[in-house]
Amino acid sequence: MTTTTQTFSIPKEDIQAAIDSLSVQNRTMIRLLLLQYQNLEKEDIEYMATDQPDSRFMAGGQPTVKPSIGEAIREVGARAEQYRKLFRQKRERPSLQIECLKKQMALTDSAIRAAEGLLTDRFHVDPVTIKERKKAAISALPKPEIRRLNKAWDLDEISEEDYQTTRLLIEYQTLLRRKERQQRRLNFAQNEFEHSGLSPLQDHEIAHIWGIPLGSLSGRKVKAMHNYLTTLQSRLEAANAMPDPIEGRPDLWRETIRTLSQQPVERSVVSFIAGIERTEELLLEKLKTLAEGEMPEELESSFWQLIARIHDSEHSGPWSNHARSIFALQRLSATLSDLDPTLEEFEDTLLKIITPQAKGEALPAPEQQEKEVELGEQALGVLNAFIGEIDDKRSG
């Protein structure tokens, strides 16, 4: 049984050296399998273009010189770039989610500390009550409790200090639920990021880039992987980097991908695509509201799903599926980086939220209905001149 030791890892330099030492056919195949981390060289693209079978000569020998080799090189390069971009954005999207969520959780933690400080120092809430509220935060329903609290305030059944204390406890639970949602999203994004980094290109994808029949690919793939793994193992053994056989024989292919997945994620340059919102201004406004923690709890979850999920592209196939999400997450990350509130600013924000509305505060006056404007004799004359006067004989 093949096992992998927990302490074993392959140096990235050995991986690159083993790939570079292969023949052009085997090297091209390995780079295609690892296209998420490896760049195709000009020599690799030219080899694939010249290696494509000419459909006009399938029954006989292939011509030694192909007249359309320049066009074939451009097509192979374009397809390789499409898959390279797709697979790297597939990994970039959850990476950006992780980045944004860690920043959001840091802000939420600061807000929770500010709320706990106010409850303890200013409103003198005992630790038992805070602990009970914290335990019941996940299942708490804030809206009915806020309505009951506001009604009691309007009916003079509660003092201002008691109102603020209860309202702050509700807000404290809201922050705890926000932290719990963010932690769940972070766990999901981390799992997706790890899975996306361990997936090589599939056979049909390689055949599409290369422009060769799928049936002729498996033999080339087996040969290329065998030569690569043999070369890599020889290098590791020469450097005494292979683990003791008693501890188990490592899966060098899996460890190759694991090592390459540790390298930094390449950032894409994407532009706004309508879908999450109609315009870029509307999207940026919502992202700012989300970053500042001012988005209502019931809207926040659905909006996060919009900016984090894969968006199907009707006209461009799968090639732009991740672009909308990446654009939104890049802007959200930049907005979160600009936020650096102090603990006192968090406390001031919480105090504004829990301050009750002043009693007897004048309600806004209802909008008066506009009176119909009666036209004068001169205005009626001008109007009739435009529409034409009514023929009395015909109307009679």
Automatic annotation (TrEMBL):
Superkingdom field: Bacteria
Protein name: Uncharacterized protein
Organism for this UniProt entry: Candidatus Nitronereus thalassa
